[in-house]
UniProtKB/TrEMBL annotation:
Annotated source species: Acanthochromis polyacanthus
Swiss-Prot/TrEMBL keywords: Autophagy, Lysosome, Membrane, Metal-binding, Repeat, Transferase, Ubl conjugation pathway, WD repeat, Zinc, Zinc-finger
Name of the top EC class for this enzyme: transferase
Key word tRNA processing present: no
CDD domains hit by this protein: mRING-H2-C3H3C2_WDR24 (cd16693)
Family label: Belongs to the WD repeat WDR24 family.
Designated name of the protein: GATOR2 complex protein WDR24
Mapped WD repeat ranges: 116-158, 203-245
Role noted for this protein: Catalytic component of the GATOR2 complex, a multiprotein complex that acts as an activator of the amino acid-sensing branch of the mTORC1 signaling pathway. The GATOR2 complex indirectly activates mTORC1 through the inhibition of the GATOR1 subcomplex. GATOR2 probably acts as an E3 ubiquitin-protein ligase toward GATOR1. In the presence of abundant amino acids, the GATOR2 complex mediates ubiquitination of the NPRL2 core component of the GATOR1 complex, leading to GATOR1 inactivation. In the absence of amino acids, GATOR2 is inhibited, activating the GATOR1 complex.
Record pathway: Protein modification; protein ubiquitination
Principal location class: membrane
Catalytic activity: S-ubiquitinyl-[E2 ubiquitin-conjugating enzyme]-L-cysteine + [acceptor protein]-L-lysine = [E2 ubiquitin-conjugating enzyme]-L-cysteine + N(6)-ubiquitinyl-[acceptor protein]-L-lysine
Gene Ontology process terms (BP): autophagy; cellular response to amino acid starvation; positive regulation of macroautophagy; positive regulation of TORC1 signaling
Its EC number(s): 2.3.2.27
Length: 789
């Protein structure tokens, strides 16, 4: 105790001093630890094990612990810890499963003291008891934790986590008998060293491995954990159930977490991969780091505060083979570069806008708070050290609400639920989706689906529905234009012309009957519209230019219209076509002005189907009527981009899935991935989980298809012996009992199985739901109070 009091006195007189400095190491470091008087640091790794002195201006190498001609794997360290009570005692966790202690007081070159080889796999963590000199705890990849008494040659207790590998173990700073252990399956367990048979408490802390944990040095019940899910969580362990009280979202998996001394709400973290920086967080403001250290060029592997009562010095080791001492006053402050303005749309179209209060201070409706702005804690006004506080940037939030009737998102939900994306032929999918859009009063989307069906359907797979579809095969019908009509001889009679048309150009006996002529721009599109519900059948006359004028007669200019003078002989059989729809008005006017047609004839004359078809073809180029599907790909690509830019990623993704390989190669993978992620995010915000999963399954982007494959492994323990189950059946290999027995009906559960994470008992989903409606106690009779949520 005399030495400890001396250290405290030294701290009060500011003997711990220094600057931001670093030194190069011989090899990458895996872990570092500092001695209790903050004058030396030990660095351990696969190929390094050295002690450095912390002097005023630099690191000085004091001792190399890797000695001998042939260093064994005992020197290959995954973790190292310097005892905080005994200044000459170190412990390392070796990659070969050994736990080694080192006594720096030995006079020989080899400082190795004791060697424990009880673990079967790599030891991930070693931890000394904070007040008990001879107690050492280890956690291994084999799933076991062992407690060693350094006065004995073997472990005194073995703790089985009944789970996967142990990633971290930490003794409680305030509770003598308690330690916490974190596991790769996301669980955290609390143990009493006096009871090695069963943990005292277990809870799921993260979705994925929990890589680290750390007890708060001052608050007895706070435990911080970090995992692969990129989160740091702070748990209150003083309640009956572990309660998450703070959560910090980082940008990469969390490898190390250490509470900052003398600062209750500050902790430091570093990442296992991708991110090389060290962050200090104020857990009360988890959205932006309080301070950042950016010196390392590779992944940071170990962090430790230089002294347990000094918050101003942080030591770190890295895979870039450097050892750093960071001065806190030299840290980067991200909040200084943060943008105090923000803009976000709500789920139902509401708009939230945040800006500096100074920018909107002219708002007369805002009433100032008496005695200062009390939206912030009162200690902000006590003039604390400015380096220990966030910048006082105050933003005002304004919310603009939209009219619910005009901005409802019901169409999005109904469209997502009713759309068909697979399971039927392409034409049927387009027709169904067009009908859905039409019923939801979205005519443009409906028309788009219809056009896609016309463009990409294979006409060879369609059959003629009936005799009324008399233009089902126009492959041999010549495309007539104004020039061919001019060249017709005026002496050619109507009967001879019709006979020639039947003989030369209608080998498949097409009958053009009045009232049944379906007019189309080209042969392929006409064939595609057959068999539909009439949305793509276009006629002139009473039904002129339906469906938003998709097809129209294009006239270049007024002067060219005068050239379309029809021969008088073409209209002599008007008594046979009186029932036909009347011609367009401007065509009737042209004929009234024509010198070949008398006034009386212009009043009753109308076009026969063959002339109508030739008129539509006037503005079209003379090419083959069969267009390949690839001809439309650029247009469809632009259309999808248009929908996406307008915010309708639902349409873009749905068309992308339905068209499949027809259009996928036309759009780059990053754009597709962006559309998919945006649509999936919207679906999940509306809790449309099944639709979201279907979209993920139908996607061909590798970054999307893996979304529903993460965290799908379920590790099961036997409900009787608590041992891990194999995947071979319902019988436990160890106790030979049937593990998945329903606690209500006592039969084997072969379908959906629900269980309580507290007592591990469960059964059929329906049986458990019915049981818990009338009773809160476990149906197995264990006395546990189960909850079904």
């Amino acid at each position: 105790m005399e030495k400890m009091s001396r250290v405290t006195t030294a701290l009060s007189s500011n003997t711990i001093s220094g600057r931001t400095m670093f030194c190069h190491l011989d090899a990458p470091a895996n872990a570092i630890s500092v001695c209790r008087d903050a004058t030396q640091v030990v660095v351990a790794g696969r190929n390094i094990f050295k002690i450095y002195g912390l002097e005023e201006e630099q690191f000085v190498e004091k001792l190399n612990l890797r000695v001998g001609r042939k260093p064994s794997l005992n020197f290959s360290c995954a973790d190292v810890m310097w005892h905080q009570m005994e200044e000459n005692l170190l412990a390392t966790a070796a990659t070969n499963g050994a736990v080694v202690t080192w006594n720096l007081g030995k006079p020989s070159r080899n400082k190795q003291d004791q060697l424990f080889t009880e673990h079967k796999r790599t030891v991930n963590k070693v931890c000394f008891h904070p007040t008990e000199v001879y107690m050492l705890l280890s956690g291994s990849q084999d799933g076991f934790m062992k407690c060693f008494d350094l006065r004995k040659k073997e472990s005194v207790s073995t703790f089985s986590g009944q789970s996967e590998s142990v990633r971290d173990v930490q003794f409680s700073m305030k509770d003598y008998f308690t330690f916490a252990a974190s596991f790769e399956n996301g669980n955290v367990q609390l143990w009493d060293i006096r009871r090695p048979d069963r943990y005292e408490r277990m809870f799921t802390a993260h979705t994925g491995p929990v890589f680290c944990c750390d007890w708060h040095p001052d608050d007895r019940g706070w435990l911080a954990t970090g995992g692969r899910d990129k989160m740091v969580k702070v748990w209150d362990m003083t309640t009956n159930r572990a309660k998450e009280i703070y959560c910090v979202q980082t940008i990469a998996s969390v490898a190390r977490v250490k509470w900052r001394p003398e600062r209750k709400f500050h902790l430091a973290t570093c990442s296992m991969m991708v991110d090389h920086n060290i962050y200090v967080w104020d857990i009360r403001r988890p959205f932006i780091p309080f301070a950042t250290f950016e010196e390392h060029k590779d992944v940071t592997t170990g962090i430790v505060w230089r002294h347990q009562h000094d918050p101003h010095f942080l030591l770190s080791g890295s895979k870039d083979s450097t050892l750093y001492q960071h001065m806190f006053k030299d840290a980067t402050r991200p909040v200084d570069k943060a943008n105090p303005e923000g803009l976000c749309f709500g789920l139902l179209g509401d708009l939230a806008f945040a800006a500096k209060e100074s920018l909107i201070s002219s708002d007369a409706n805002r009433k100032p708070y008496p005695g200062g702005d009390r939206r912030y804690p009162i200690f902000f006004f006590k003039k604390p050290d400015p380096t220990e506080q966030f910048a006082h940037v105050s933003s005002a939030l304004t919310v603009f609400e939209t009219d619910l009737d005009s901005n409802r998102m019901d169409w999005f939900v109904k469209t997502a639920q009713l759309y068909l994306l697979s399971g039927k032929p392409f034409a049927e999918l387009c027709d169904h989706n067009a009908k859905v859009a039409q019923e939801l009063k979205r005519p443009q989307v409906s028309t788009t689906w219809t056009m896609l069906r016309i463009m990409f359907s294979d006409p060879a797979n369609l059959t003629t529905p009936g005799p009324n579809h008399n233009l089902s095969k126009l492959g041999t019908l010549p495309l007539m234009n104004s020039f061919s009509m001019k060249e017709m001889g005026s002496g050619m009679g109507t009967e001879s012309r019709l006979e020639r048309s039947k003989g030369d150009s209608r080998q498949d006996n097409i009958h053009l009957e009045p009232g049944n002529s379906h007019i189309s721009n080209n042969n392929e599109e006409n064939e595609e519209t057959e068999g539909s519900d009439g949305q793509a059948e276009y006629m002139f006359g009473d039904a002129e230019l339906d469906d938003d004028d998709l097809y129209s007669v294009e006239h270049d200019n007024q002067t060219e219209e005068q050239e379309y003078a029809l021969p008088q002989e073409a209209f002599q059989l008007r008594h046979e076509i009186m029932d036909n729809p009347s011609a367009p008005e401007h065509l009737q006017q042209d004929k009234a002005d024509s010198p070949h047609v008398s006034g009386n004839e212009a009043e009753v004359t109308c076009l026969t189907p063959i002339e109508s078809f030739s008129l539509i073809s006037i503005s079209q180029p003379l090419y083959s009527p069969h267009l390949p599907a690839s001809f439309f790909c650029p247009i469809v690509r632009e259309m999808l981009s248009h929908y996406a830019e307008q915010g309708d990623v639902q349409m873009a993704v749905s068309v992308l899935i339905v068209l499949g390989e027809r259009i996928r190669k036309e759009i780059d993978d990053l754009t597709q991935e962006h559309w998919y992620m945006s649509y999936i995010d919207l679906l999940q915000r509306f809790e449309l989980w099944n639709v979201s999963n279907e979209v993920i399954k139908l996607s061909t982007c590798s970054a999307i298809t893996c979304l529903n494959q993460t965290s799908t492994t379920l590790h099961i323990n036997c409900s009787n012996c608590k041992r891990p189950m194999s995947n071979k059946g319902w019988i436990c290999d160890r106790c030979h009992q049937c593990a998945s027995v329903c606690a209500v009906c006592h039969h084997v559960v072969k379908g959906l199985f629900v269980w309580c994470q507290g007592c591990s008992h469960g059964g059929h989903l329906e049986h458990m739901m019915n049981w818990l409606k009338s009773s809160a106690h476990c149906p197995a009779g264990c006395g546990h109070l189960c909850e079904y949520t």
